[in-house]
Amino acid sequence: MAPARVNADKDAEDELEMKVEKYSRGKGADLKALRDKKLKGQLAVKEKLYGQSAKAAAKAEQWLMPTEEGFLEPDEDLEKTYRVQQELILKEVDLLSSRKPFDMILPVLGPYTIEYTSNGRYMLVGGRKGHLAMMDMLNMDLIKEFQVRETVRDVAFLHNEQLYAVAQKKYPYIYNRHGTEIHCLKEHGKALKLQFLTKQFLLTSINSFGQLHYQDVSTGEMIANYRTGLGRTDVMRVNPYNAVIGLGHAGGKVTMWKPTSVKPLVTMLCHHGPVTAVAFDRSGHLMVTAGVDRKIKIWDLRKYEVVNSYPVRAQSLDFSQKGLLACSNGSLVEIYRDFGGHDYRLYMKHRMMKGYQVGKVLFRPYEDILGIGHSMGLSSILVPGSGEPNFDTFIENPMETTKQKREKEVHALLDKLPPDTIMLNPSLIATVRAPKKKEKKTKKEIEEEVEEAVDAAKNMERKKKTKGRSKPSKRAKKKEEDVFRAKRPFLEQSKEADGRPDKKQRIGEEGELPKALQRFAKKPQS
Amino acid sequence: MRVKVISRSTDEFTRDRSQDLQKVFRNYDPGLRSQEKAVEYTRALNAAKLEKIFAKPFIGAMDGHIDAVSCMAKNPNHLKAIFSGSMDGDIRLWDIAARKTVCQFPGHQGAVRGLTTSTEGDLLVSCGVDCTVRLWKVPMLKMVDTSDHIGDTSQPSAVYTWKHAFWGADHQWDGNLFATVGAQVDIWDPNRSEPVNSFEWGKDTVLSVRFDPGDCNILITSASDRSLTLYDLRMSSPARKLIMKTRCNSVCWNPREPMNFTAANEDTNCYSFDARRLDEAKIVHKGHVSAVMDIDYSPTGREFVTGSYDRTVRIFNYLGDHSREIYHTKRMQRVFCVKYTYDGTYLVSGSDDTNLRLWKSKASEQLGVLLPRERKKQEYLDAVKERYKHLPEVKRIVRHRHLPKPIYKAANMRRTMIEAENRKEERRRKHSAPGSMPVQPFRKRRIIKEVE
């Protein structure tokens, strides 16, 4: 009895330690290297506080998180999860969840693209031929539906469901939730794809000339306008970790952009042939790209290396909050799961009706649902284990009331980040630049090196030579020469370290000497 | 096959009735919070800016005296009461909350130089250049002042005439003796018409006196022979004396660390000393551009306020070498006396322009009762400001103070002079025999000697 309890305690401790690591945001500072005692003390107190808060968060996890994660597990090893059909899942799950998946057949105005708000409550639907609709997915209510009677290429929510942008035939437009046109963004031109950077309040678009626009939607100011120079593309995704924009180009390149630099931060050659889709993991370390060369590649963005590559064709890709990867190909939607070490294996499979072309797959945040926009309308399927089960009221709240929404909007505007906070490694903000490596040696170091070299030259073994060439006088002379030769390079170095040429040279080089001194100046050699 | 999906019923996650509080769910996962550091930094920056926007430290001036305010005393019984004495012999009791005179104490024929109250707060002692010590009964202050009339006058309960003019007075923290200083240091019992004890060390005038809050028998004085002298009432003669290069106008003990005191010096600096080690100052507080006239510690002992001849009032951290805050107004003239109120939220300064001025000790603090949420928010903002205070942008905003042109110029000039002096010293050192001119820390440089 007793050993079992000890084991259980130890397990609980290990589990807590793992959880603490999740909350501790990296390793603490190394205090042993510090010489300043006062600073050391202050930092030690801070580190202790950080540790305590991480531990408190880990301990509170079980009380604060009411919802459990979804899962789909086989009973025995031979059973495969990807053979499970949606009908079977629907039978197994509770009534509330079974109402969530749907198929909407809208054959006239398709193909459709979809978009969710960041709290996963509202869905925006855009039909290629001008059909726009917004839905409340919690109550399955249609909020507004209307037609713009021109091509709709992409839709994007702004900071909440009150406003959304639509890339139409000639320009992107901004509508409010009642479908009233608020703005026409002519400067963007014929936008093909829209993305919204929530923290910075930037609406980003790529247009048919391959120009990337960043516009601040809170002030209306156009922040940046860059020519990509890599041709027309409609593959654009924002990396949620650092708000860097990733673009996939027809030449197989993927470029990453921030609004404060004219040139891309990163250019990677990812595929032979055009890139068809790009998606980023929530942690920001993984990128997945798909090309027409029938490959999906998973990249580690810390090393810019391929972690894994699969021979699959994909038109659209999306990472879920829990790291599932959805990709669509024709009428087939496949979902992959990481089985450890970035080994993505097929987890679920869903085949749409024959002839449907899936245009976009998108996981709904905070739900186990995958939204699918296709040529004949839209669908959604259940994908157990895809969404984050527990939301934070003060970050994203799927159940938020009007008042909470308003308050959140105000806070978001107060905490609006300036565009220069977008960088590849966002944790670099407020850190100290590492000291540069010393290039010039100090005088003392040079002296030490000279001594070493001189010693080496003195102690060199010399061959015994015949015919009087090994006389003591000759040997001494030779030794002297060797020593001088060993010294010479250092003499030049020390002159450079001094930062001024030797005296003789100075007199010769300076043209503007007083008259009385000019006769001492070196004559220029003719 | 086992299947489970996320399922949230709306009832569980929303409140039942509209009177209920909203349900709050937390998930502290760092993965949900992207660009955390950037957000925190932006908040710190905004908080620093807002602090500057809300920095309105001046509350009001209290007008009434017809000559310069020379001294003040706090009343330990009433938070909102303060006494002030002026150069024409007028003593007034002020209600800080209403900013009005409550009571006047007429009688002195010349300038009032010392004011102090007993620990019980019922006795006011005043002394001045007319060689008299007057004891007054302090009137009760009403909680809410309804009447509009400008106070009544009061009669002294005792008048003691003595041999010399007085320069300062202070009451024991624990006990009923008080000390007056002038040509000598006199210890008085309020019931005797002559001092119970007198000390003398040298013939120069003593300028100020303060009793130690920790030990009621120890007091410190500053004198015009540039000395700081420690006295023990249990001994017949003064205990120790420190002579500096310039005189100290005022001294004040740190109420939380009663072995430490800070002296306001004529050479624009304040010097914090440990009373057990007088051979070097613990910290030199620089900042003023003219003589520091008065100093008073906050009851928390973490800050002190100084008033100076350069027309500014500054607040220093007790460990800080430069001022945390500089207060000035167009109309404020030479500041002769400053006091920190007993709750640590206000400062009172008395100046040459006959006014008492009331300031907030934290310039941007919101006065009045804060809701818990407001307080927490404020604490959070203070914490992020503290965290990012070293970053150039935040630092620039937090450090910036607008100064009147004369003070700004004087500070620049002082800096130039000090630099030149240092340069000269450095050159002298270079051209003299090695070791003949040892580098002396600034903490010791202004001290001449310590006499036992």
UniProtKB/TrEMBL annotation, chain A:
<keyword id="KW-0677">Repeat</keyword>
<dbReference type="InterPro" id="IPR036322">
    <property type="entry name" value="WD40_repeat_dom_sf"/>
</dbReference>
<keyword id="KW-0539">Nucleus</keyword>
<dbReference type="InterPro" id="IPR040315">
    <property type="entry name" value="WDR46/Utp7"/>
</dbReference>
<dbReference type="Pfam" id="PF08149">
    <property type="entry name" value="BING4CT"/>
</dbReference>
<dbReference type="Pfam" id="PF00400">
    <property type="entry name" value="WD40"/>
</dbReference>
<dbReference type="GO" id="GO:0000462">
    <property type="term" value="P:maturation of SSU-rRNA from tricistronic rRNA transcript (SSU-rRNA, 5.8S rRNA, LSU-rRNA)"/>
</dbReference>
<feature type="compositionally biased region" description="Basic and acidic residues">
    <location>
        <begin position="478"/>
        <end position="513"/>
    </location>
</feature>
<feature type="repeat" description="WD">
    <location>
        <begin position="268"/>
        <end position="309"/>
    </location>
</feature>
<feature type="domain" description="BING4 C-terminal">
    <location>
        <begin position="346"/>
        <end position="426"/>
    </location>
</feature>
<feature type="region of interest" description="Disordered">
    <location>
        <begin position="435"/>
        <end position="526"/>
    </location>
</feature>
<dbReference type="GO" id="GO:0032040">
    <property type="term" value="C:small-subunit processome"/>
</dbReference>
<protein>
    <recommendedName>
        <fullName>BING4 C-terminal domain-containing protein</fullName>
    </recommendedName>
</protein>
<dbReference type="InterPro" id="IPR001680">
    <property type="entry name" value="WD40_rpt"/>
</dbReference>
<dbReference type="GO" id="GO:0005730">
    <property type="term" value="C:nucleolus"/>
</dbReference>
<keyword id="KW-0698">rRNA processing</keyword>
<feature type="compositionally biased region" description="Basic residues">
    <location>
        <begin position="461"/>
        <end position="477"/>
    </location>
</feature>
<dbReference type="InterPro" id="IPR015943">
    <property type="entry name" value="WD40/YVTN_repeat-like_dom_sf"/>
</dbReference>
<dbReference type="InterPro" id="IPR012952">
    <property type="entry name" value="BING4_C_dom"/>
</dbReference>
<keyword id="KW-0853">WD repeat</keyword>
<dbReference type="InterPro" id="IPR019775">
    <property type="entry name" value="WD40_repeat_CS"/>
</dbReference>
TrEMBL record, chain B:
<protein>
    <recommendedName>
        <fullName>DDB1- and CUL4-associated factor 13</fullName>
    </recommendedName>
</protein>
<feature type="repeat" description="WD">
    <location>
        <begin position="62"/>
        <end position="104"/>
    </location>
</feature>
<keyword id="KW-0853">WD repeat</keyword>
<keyword id="KW-0687">Ribonucleoprotein</keyword>
<feature type="compositionally biased region" description="Basic residues">
    <location>
        <begin position="442"/>
        <end position="452"/>
    </location>
</feature>
<dbReference type="GO" id="GO:0005730">
    <property type="term" value="C:nucleolus"/>
</dbReference>
<dbReference type="Pfam" id="PF04158">
    <property type="entry name" value="Sof1"/>
</dbReference>
<dbReference type="InterPro" id="IPR015943">
    <property type="entry name" value="WD40/YVTN_repeat-like_dom_sf"/>
</dbReference>
<dbReference type="GO" id="GO:0032040">
    <property type="term" value="C:small-subunit processome"/>
</dbReference>
<feature type="region of interest" description="Disordered">
    <location>
        <begin position="422"/>
        <end position="452"/>
    </location>
</feature>
<dbReference type="InterPro" id="IPR019775">
    <property type="entry name" value="WD40_repeat_CS"/>
</dbReference>
<dbReference type="InterPro" id="IPR007287">
    <property type="entry name" value="Sof1"/>
</dbReference>
<feature type="repeat" description="WD">
    <location>
        <begin position="105"/>
        <end position="146"/>
    </location>
</feature>
<dbReference type="GO" id="GO:0080008">
    <property type="term" value="C:Cul4-RING E3 ubiquitin ligase complex"/>
</dbReference>
<comment type="similarity">
    <text>Belongs to the WD repeat DCAF13/WDSOF1 family.</text>
</comment>
<keyword id="KW-0539">Nucleus</keyword>
<dbReference type="InterPro" id="IPR051733">
    <property type="entry name" value="WD_repeat_DCAF13/WDSOF1"/>
</dbReference>
<dbReference type="GO" id="GO:0016567">
    <property type="term" value="P:protein ubiquitination"/>
</dbReference>
<dbReference type="InterPro" id="IPR036322">
    <property type="entry name" value="WD40_repeat_dom_sf"/>
</dbReference>
<dbReference type="GO" id="GO:0000462">
    <property type="term" value="P:maturation of SSU-rRNA from tricistronic rRNA transcript (SSU-rRNA, 5.8S rRNA, LSU-rRNA)"/>
</dbReference>
<feature type="repeat" description="WD">
    <location>
        <begin position="285"/>
        <end position="317"/>
    </location>
</feature>
<feature type="repeat" description="WD">
    <location>
        <begin position="328"/>
        <end position="369"/>
    </location>
</feature>
